[in-house]
């Protein structure tokens, strides 16, 4: 299915993501943005567990298409952390035992927030009527109604207005071609003007896990650079990698496949590669999606080639990555570091072989086998554990 770009503001921060037109806002928040505070219950717009604010109005996110919210301001339960009115509601819910299992609570809090803000003179009967679209299977509603009435009757604090983050700011383009703003956050409008929809804005990777590595070669820096700076050659050195096309603007389109027993993933996507030939350095930023699991991998890589006195060379790598979706269970930093080291060993051996005019696939696998990678990772952990005992 053809994907569409969704530009909106979520909890005060600009978001620009590619998603399928059929994706509901609740799935977009939970799976693409990892905002799992929005709960999915009936998925038919009946129970109210998924209620969020869209442009200031309570909305059933399970029956609202994300694509229909283009340009909107969305506020999920995570967006109320420092809101004084929501703090008063949370405290009242705790005092009046307004929750048990807690599954309906995010939607109840959002609806309660709307009631207090919109109906300051509401009585208990009106509160019950306003809550009729939010179902709870635990409490019998008495504690929830009492909590909302407590806030209404005790001079509730003013709601905190979400900052309007969609105003475009003056952008600057760095030497590496990345996008930034005066505040360090790219607006959707700026991102849309300067970055293809299939590539993440640099700001979206702020705070993401990082990994730095140095690879040494027994080949000169110029010979290694000739491989690293050539998209076709470097992709041929990546197990499971495939380069489909190189378009204008240094955009690379391709895929990387990995199999782990019955689990198979093929991340297809786009990356932009910018090179500084004089300094033998480069910058890559891109996004890949696995259509089957609906997982997404965003990544950014800075690399630099340096010659060594003993006629060898070294390649320094600084990586930032963000994996979302069902496969994010494999994105724990310690596990990623172990897997990355093993993949880089294979890539380094292939690069050096190619630089020497040899066939890298005579000794290195063409495809990425997740099971063998995981097995080697766990064996490494076991050996280190036994060594220190």
In terms of topology, how is this protein built?
Layout: E1 4-10, E2 13-19, H1 25-32, E3 51-54, E4 57-60, E5 73-75, H2 84-95, H3 105-118, H4 124-130, H5 142-153, E6 171-173, E7 179-181, H6 188-194, E8 210-217, H7 221-228, H8 231-236, E9 241-247, E10 251-260, E11 263-276, E12 281-290, E13 295-307, E14 313-324, H9 333-355, E15 368-369, H10 370-387
Helix pairs in contact: 2-3, 2-5, 3-5, 7-9, 9-10
Write a concise keyword list for the protein shown above.
alpha+beta, 10 helices, 2 domains, Alpha-D-Glucose-1,6-Bisphosphate, Chain A, domain 4, 28% strand, 389 residues
Query: What is the beta-strand fraction?
Result: 25-35%
Could you tell me the mean pLDDT? 80
* Count of discrete alpha- or pi-helical segments spanning 4 or more residues: 10
Coarse shape = elongated
Cα end-to-end separation: 53 Å
State the total count of DSSP E strands. Answer: 15
Unreliable stretches: 164-195, 381-386
By CATH, the superfamily of the largest domain comes out as START domain
Q: State the order of secondary-structure elements, H for helix, E for strand.
A: EEHEEEHHHHEEHEHHEEEEEEHEH
CATH class of the largest domain: Alpha Beta
- Reported CATH architecture of the largest domain: 2-Layer Sandwich
Structural class by secondary-structure content: alpha+beta
Give Rg in angstroms: 25 Å
Largest sheet composition:
8 strands, mixed
Number of domains: 2
CATH topology of the largest domain: Alpha-D-Glucose-1,6-Bisphosphate, Chain A, domain 4
Helix content: 25-40%
Domain 2Fe-2S ferredoxin-type: 4-80
Protein name: 2Fe-2S iron-sulfur cluster binding domain-containing protein
Keywords: 2Fe-2S, Iron, Iron-sulfur, Metal-binding, Oxidoreductase
InterPro entries: 2Fe-2S-bd, 2Fe-2S-bd_dom_sf, 2Fe-2S_ferredoxin-like_sf, 2Fe-2S_ferredoxin-type, 2Fe2S_fd_BS, Beta-grasp_dom_sf, CO_DH_gsu, Diverse_Oxidoreductases
